[in-house]
User: Which sequence fits this backbone?
């Protein structure tokens, strides 16, 4: 089972395809089995964010292996979120695949600078309202 990071905005969010030849941060439209995650958000446009592993698992490495690639994917995610925030409100929901309908166990309000300082906002069942 994989970690899933969803991003919502009141505007269309740019997509970024996963490239297996140069794995890194990617943004995909929701698949049919992910559409239920929309219920977590107050904003209309929702996308899935992936890391160098294609899924979101790589944002938070489980071992020393791949720490640099994870840090780069997380930095690219934060940069993407900062860019999206310049166009309007942004919300983030993190869960395990299959838990898209489970409500958040933790709600946070964070500014962009706080996203770079820690990765605990990427814990499962965490909802983040990104503050400008």
Assistant:
């Amino acid at each position: 089972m994989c970690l899933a990071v969803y991003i919502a905005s009141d505007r269309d969010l740019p997509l970024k395809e996963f490239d297996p030849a140069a794995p890194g941060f990617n943004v995909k439209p929701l698949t049919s089995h992910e559409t239920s995650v929309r219920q977590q958000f107050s904003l209309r446009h929702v996308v899935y964010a992936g890391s160098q592993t294609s899924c979101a698992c790589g944002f938070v490495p489980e071992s020393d292996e791949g720490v640099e690639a994870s840090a780069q994917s997380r930095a690219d995610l934060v940069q993407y979120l900062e860019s999206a925030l310049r166009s309007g409100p942004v919300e983030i929901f993190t869960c395990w695949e299959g838990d898209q309908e489970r409500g958040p166990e933790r709600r946070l309000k964070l500014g962009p600078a706080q996203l770079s300082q820690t990765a605990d906002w990427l814990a499962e069942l965490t909802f983040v309202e990104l503050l400008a």
